[in-house]
Amino acid sequence: MKTILLTEGKTRFETPDPAKFRTSAGDYAPSLTKVFYNPHMELCRDISISVAQVASDTFNGLYLCDPLAGIGIRGLRYANEVTGVARCLINDRSTEAFELIKRNIALNGLDNSVEASSVDANVILRENRGKFNFVDLDPFGSPAPFLDAACSSLSRRGMLALTATDTAPLSGTYPKTCLRRYGTKPLKTESCHEIGIRILIGFAQRIGGIHEIALSPVLAHATQHYFRVYLLGQRSAQRADELLKETGYISYCNECLRRTTSPGLIPELPRECECGGKFSHAGPLWLGKLTNKAFTQQVIQDLTARDFRLKHHEISLLLRCAEEADGPPTFYDLNEVAGLVKKSPPKMDRVISALRECGYFASRTHFSPTGFRTDAPITEILKIIKGA
Ligand code: SAM
User: Fold this and answer.
1) Would the CB of 73 count as within 6 Å of ligand 1?
2) pLDDT tens digits for 171-201?
3) Pairing of strands 62-66, 11-15
4) What is the model's pTM?
5) In order of start, what are the domains of the chain with their CATH numbers?
6) Atom of ligand 1 nearest to the CA of 140
7) Best exposed site among 144, 221, 303, 356 by fewest CB in 10 Å?
């Protein structure tokens, strides 16, 4: 296999040249190469490095597993760029990937802390029951087939990082697939990506619950074609039960944009909205916070001290996640709300200031450049937009 040498962060690696595997539209097409390396995921990997550093400082060291590794770039970067990594297992079932992983471990002089393997991800995770305090599931499509084994491999306290690229089912384009894969009904609204992330978290928490592990989200973002979620795991049946209280449904009126939440796995759901419209529902899903503000600020602090090429994009994204962290589930689209009162959209900053002056939570959201998050009732939002 012909390879080239590249660098990401501080890590050098051999990979098939990504520039050679492009669709006619110029996008990177992983299906065309035998071994996977996607340069567009650099932002995601950089943020993961800082998350892992915060986790390493919290847990006093890391025992990591990258079970779906491609050329091994994630695991290599964790081992090379995060201080406190005691052991890192990098696995991919492809034998071509395995050969490159071994060469890349040697290239970075990581033979003492990093081990390579080439078996099914579920096998390697189950063989290491309770051993890892950081597991990164970065599959093609959905992480669902690997979640049970990943939970069994987590130690008493550990971080589970998930990537999902099956955003179309999770966001309501293919609701039957979402129901089959995640046991949840999605909803196509302006907040469909946020709802998709909440579905993914709720599903992971239910699998965690089987293992008496409480999985609390500390950071979640939707970027380009993928969702990324970091869940802090704690072995505690009581804590897992508490998290279930923040699982429930989001009900949404298409006529007036009102939304309500109903906690519980089998709650009574509202049918008719005050405006006479009918509610549509999404759930069961996670209704609690997507991001822990204090944790995200620590991640931003770590990122700030690093020399990453995309650092400014990464910090802006995380600042927005922190800004919206304490808001309620789902956001409004400024153009859509202005359309309801037949007005052209006012400036976003004016709307946010006016909502805050009235005592409501208000912020932008990283999910959409025209979105705003607030706990104000829709009647108040409409009044403010009319007056803005
Ligand atoms: N984590 C990589 C990165 O950051 O570049 C990308 C991984 S790629 C999305 C998914 C990888 O999982 C592929 O290299 C594929 O060979 C591997 N894979 C798919 N199913 C697997 C399984 N059941 N067990 C182990 N590896 C698997």
Assistant:
1) yes
2) 999 999 999 999 999 999 999 999 999 999 9
3) unpaired
4) 0.97
5) 4-286 (3.40.50.150), 331-388 (3.30.56.70)
6) 9
7) 356
